[in-house]
Design brief:
alpha+beta; Beta-Lactamase; six-stranded antiparallel β-sheet; IclR family transcriptional regulator; DNA-binding; transcription; DNA binding; transcription regulation
């Protein structure tokens, strides 16, 4: 990062600050200066300035003599995104209704670079062992929601993605063949759904459908569960109709003309469901 060249509008110090924030994760909840520098490609001096600035602003705190950790204030950055997007403001009651209908974990995922990120998730803990939550990231190529998101790419964009992506096998069932993945994404685009079994985590299956905003694919709606013996046809019969109905509700509500009315209706419906 130190040697990167950017246009004159680029604020290098902001880029460094964001890089340091993203250096923290579940495996690195507290970092030393050296660790932060190594994870971001910054010098120790630059990492120190960033971390001390984050401490001063309340986004980080010092742990002992050498370590730094993020504070809950960082959540405000993610909330700013969620609160600024119309979908997330009314998606939760739709997901709650879907979870009640299916009895399975349901999520909404969006694309972030070469990964999907969960932006809304309502888990059914008895059915999953995978430790994922809002903000968790998973590669696009091996997840049903990721393949739905990839289906929004043009053929040229998909070729660029497959050429650049690091296609690692997460399990013995993960498909990492570029030609095969290209064909799979094409099938997803034609069928309007994606189903995967054991590619992210052995024994876990997922089914996903697209969410559109005025014709543009912006997110994927997903249902997932542990299932040692799963058949795609069984999933399509059991889950796909409800999943498509929920995605259609969300896509409809994202229409600029219809949004206010539909948001009120979804809120009213959610209230009636809780009352019952």
């Amino acid at each position: 990062m130190e040697d990167s060249k950017h246009d004159e509008y680029f604020i290098n110090s902001l880029a460094k600050g964001l890089a340091v924030i993203q250096a923290f994760n579940n495996e690195a909840r507290a970092l030393t200066l050296s660790e932060a520098a190594a994870r971001t490609g910054l010098t120790r001096a630059a990492a120190r300035r960033v971390l001390l600035t984050l401490v001063e602003l309340g986004f980080a705190s010092r742990h002992g003599d050498r370590h730094f950790a993020l504070t809950p204030r960082v959540l405000a950055l993610g909330y700013a995104y969620l609160s600024s997007m119309p979908l997330w403001s009314f998606a939760e009651p739709v997901l709650e209704g879907l979870v009640a209908d299916l009895g399975e974990t349901c999520s909404i995922a969006a694309m972030d670079g070469h990964q999907l990120i969960y932006v809304v998730r309502i888990p059914v803990h008895r059915t999953l062992v995978q430790d994922v939550s809002i903000g968790s990231r998973i590669p696009l190529y091996c997840h049903s929601a990721g393949r739905v998101l990839l289906s929004g790419y043009t053929p040229e964009q998909l070729d660029d993605y497959l050429a650049q992506a690091n296609l690692l096998p997460l399990t013995r069932y993960t498909n990492t063949d570029r030609a095969s993945l290209r064909a799979i994404v094409g099938d997803v685009r034609r069928r309007g759904y994606a189903w995967t079994s054991g590619e992210v985590e052995e024994g876990t299956c997922g089914l996903s459908v697209p969410i559109f905003q005025q014709g543009r694919l912006i997110a994927a709606l997903n249902v997932s569960r542990m299932s040692a013996k799963a058949a795609e046809e069984d999933w399509l019969t059991r889950y796909l109709p409800s999943l498509k109905r929920a995605a259609a509700q969300l896509s409809s509500a994202l229409s600029v003309e219809k949004a206010p009315k539909i948001i009120r209706k979804l809120a009213d419906d959610a209230g009636h469901q809780h009352a019952e």
